[in-house]
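ARCHIVE CARD
Drawer: 12
Card no.: 0347
Subject: one protein chain, sequence and derived structure
Cross-reference: see card 0346
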Amino acid sequence: MIAKAPAKGKYGKDTYGLLRYLFGPGKSNEHTDPHLVAAWDPEWLEGGAFAEHHRGWLARLAREIDAPRTGHEVDLEGGHVYHLVLSIPSQDGALGDARWRELVEEAVDRMGFGPTDDGRAGCRWVAVHHGPSKDGNDHVHVAINLVRGDGTIADTYRNWPRWRQWCLEVEQRLDLTRTSPANQTAPIRSTRAEVEKATRYRRADTNRDLLRTKVRTAAVEASSAREFIALLERDLQVAVQPRWGSDRQLTAYRVALRAEWEKASADGRIWFSGSSLAHDLSAPKLTARWTSTRQPAQEQAEVRRAPEELLTRATQAVDNARRHLTGRVIAGDVSDGSGGDDVAHATADMLVAVARALGGPEPGALAEVVVVYERAATAPRRGQPVWQTEVAAALRTTARDLFRAGILSKRNSTGLLAAALVLALIALLVQIAAWRQLSRQQAQATAATRAAARMNNYSAYLAKRHPPTGRPEPLSFQPEPVHKPSSLSPPLARRPQHPQPDPTIRRTR
């Protein structure tokens, strides 16, 4: 079970507007049977005095919920309506109205929205069930007026960890599908407005997703902050504004797409900071990542001259990381000093480099592996590890060298080495999933497992589409011999060669 805020946020000011949406057809006609399953006053439920849905019933319900706020003339700046969703996955089936009522009443009391022991009146709230979601998940919407009956405001400070703990207890009590504890590893997703805009303009990615890919790619290739900013400035699609400190260190930056314009913006651009793209793309975390890479990267010209050697080094680095992580899994070591977070985070750089080297400008399936693996690479509560082990530093440095090598061929001897690197990455992803599972980080383990499965599919595609031969392929054409003209006679003009007629075809006038 999870508790989450809607796309527009958990705070609002329009109680009646929220109820109209919950009892309406929905944006995609997904609201099939909207009805109340729980409320602060049972008389509003089925069989109660106010349960009959006569004309104006919904407006009266909104006024009753807002009565403490209007009566005490309390105005909250962020909004007095607290809205969240309680949901269970589709494999758990449907809980039923009676069970949902018990759970919501328990949650309201547990989160401090009910009457207190010192006699303070509780908040007014309702829970609406309107059928399963588009993905088949059974869920309820809970709307709470944060103004209590005595005019005081309910405390919502750091309530999400308390919601997460309560959901974990409900999962264990009702034997529901287990979810991970709150560890702040969920990727930053695009908002509904960004998704709708991309759909409206028929774009595959939102602005946030496209910029995240470009920034992460530049972070893998760069070895310093100035090189990172230079790579972004070189991209014709990206506008970047860095902010440098007094010690000439990168303190912050923001990026935008040059082709996107927004009237509400001061300069007409839609800017995204690094931390709004991903947890590990802020300027301080990127600087710490580059500083922790102790081994110097090869020069780009040198890397391009030795692709076979580079692929061999990358495979060795991935293999060393796998052996290191396997030892930690066998020993049951999930501590911060085990290096599991370090290896998992550095593997993301290697996946980006492999997507560039083997996928080319349109990596396709390999780019999907990078997106799927993002959560598995995120360190709980920190975004990225504080320290880098030697194995992780070598993995990150080799990934940088591989990225700078450019697009590599997937045939002949290079193809054999590329296939070996892909197989080594699959084995490493499996061990990362095992370490995350041992650390009780289920969501991250699932992400690593899915990434390994997609990489395995790419390995099969690579073997089928580009079978390595072990020797250079013959040329598909033969050059014409060059005849030097004689000095005694001028060169003769070559007569045009006409194709010989096919005797099997009958000519007609």
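Annotation on reverse: Residues 412-438 form the longest helix (27 residues). DSSP finds 16 helices and nine strands in the chain.
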